[in-house]
Write a structure and sequence with these properties.
Blueprint: E1 14-18, H1 41-57, E2 61-65, E3 81-87, E4 93-99, H2 109-120, E5 124-127, E6 129-130, E7 133-134, E8 142-145, E9 148-153, H3 159-169, E10 172-177, E11 190-192, E12 197-200, H4 207-216, E13 219-222, H5 225-231, E14 237-239, E15 242-246, H6 251-259, E16 263-267, H7 270-273, H8 279-282, E17 284-285, E18 288-289, E19 301-303
Parallel strand pairs: 1-2, 3-18, 4-5, 9-10, 10-19, 12-13, 15-16
Antiparallel strand pairs: 1-17, 3-4, 6-7, 8-9, 11-12, 14-15
Length: 308
């Protein structure tokens, strides 16, 4: 049983999403993608609309970015950039997005459209790398947790990007090394639930990072590789005490979430699993507040577990 009454996540109520007008499999940059197995466009759109309606029904808000025709993966909006709210010292906050610098050239054009869109929406933007030059950072590798941002590095995000991110935002960044090729983003292996609980798939990480991440979470819901890989259950979102999970979630996981006081709402996103992502990949939370959800640290700071 919990040692203290957990509070709900203060973020995860406002999302940016990309309408899947041009979603398809044009290339294979992760183990799930197969050019011979294409998503059904009508079914994918219906699933996406259902997800939007579910978020709105639960009290969340959704902003929609148009999809570039030449960017079929842009629908996985989590990786457009890391959206935060910055306080200005007078009690007001403004939106800011650290834009992703994609590892694969096939996705880099997404920033050329998303960056100006974020700026037109009233947000500022910054980059740790751009157009193939500089460190790679993909926002699906970064979550607010405790006293820091937790950032996965390895398959997509480079460790050097963590230093740039910490300096840019003036926060502490705790790095964990991802080694599993099929859990190539942190959002496939880690899902914050509230201030004490998170789903964690330790098989995604090297041993020191797995230990460090489990030590950070007071009460982790530990996922097996099979649970994480075959159901995408860690790729869920949380709105207050409701976990929006891909349909077909493991019964053990759902039961444990229920015991912790969470309601689980399942949404079928099977067409998007063909591209290697699910609910979290499709939704980019832009309401993490620096100084409240992530404490500010003078000059920024990066912490990574020691090797061995």
């Amino acid at each position: 049983m919990p040692n203290a009454q957990p509070s709900v996540l203060s973020w995860g109520h406002r999302y940016v999403m990309v309408r899947p007008d041009h979603f398809r499999i044009d290339y294979a940059i992760n183990p799930y993608m197969d050019l011979a197995v294409q998503p059904d466009a009508h079914r994918a759109m219906a699933q996406w609309v259902d997800l939007v309606r579910t978020i709105e029904r639960l009290g969340g808000e959704v902003e929609v970015v148009p999809q570039r025709e030449d960017a079929p993966d842009m629908v996985y909006a989590m990786n457009l950039g890391l959206g935060v709210l910055r306080p200005d010292g007078t009690g007001l906050v403004s939106g800011h997005v650290v834009m992703s610098h994609m590892r694969f050239a096939e996705r880099r054009m997404e920033s050329q459209t998303a960056g100006p869109w974020f700026e037109r929406s009233g947000r500022t933007t910054s980059y740790v790398g751009r157009d193939g030059v500089g460190a790679h950072l993909e926002a699906g590798d970064v979550f607010a947790w405790g006293d820091a941002l937790v950032a996965g590095y390895g398959p997509r995000t480079e460790e050097l990007a963590l230093k740039h991110l910490a300096t840019d935002l003036g926060v502490r960044v705790r790095g964990v090394r991802i080694t599993h090729p099929a859990m190539y983003h942190l959002d496939l292996a880690f899902c914050p639930l509230d201030d004490r609980h998170a789903m964690v798939a330790p098989g995604a990480f090297d041993a020191p990072s797995a230990r460090a991440l489990l030590d950070l979470v007071p009460e982790p819901l530990v996922l097996t590789d099979q649970e994480a890989l075959t159901t995408f259950c860690a790729n869920s979102i949380v709105i207050d005490r409701t976990v929006v999970m891909p349909a077909g979630g493991p019964s053990r996981v759902i039961e444990e979430l229920g015991a912790w006081g969470f309601e689980v709402v399942e949404v079928d996103l099977s067409e998007f699993h063909k591209g290697g992502g699910s609910i979290r990949c499709l939704t980019n939370p832009v309401d993490v507040t620096l100084g409240r959800d992530v404490p500010l640290v003078a000059g920024g700071e990066v912490l990574v577990p020691p090797l061995g």
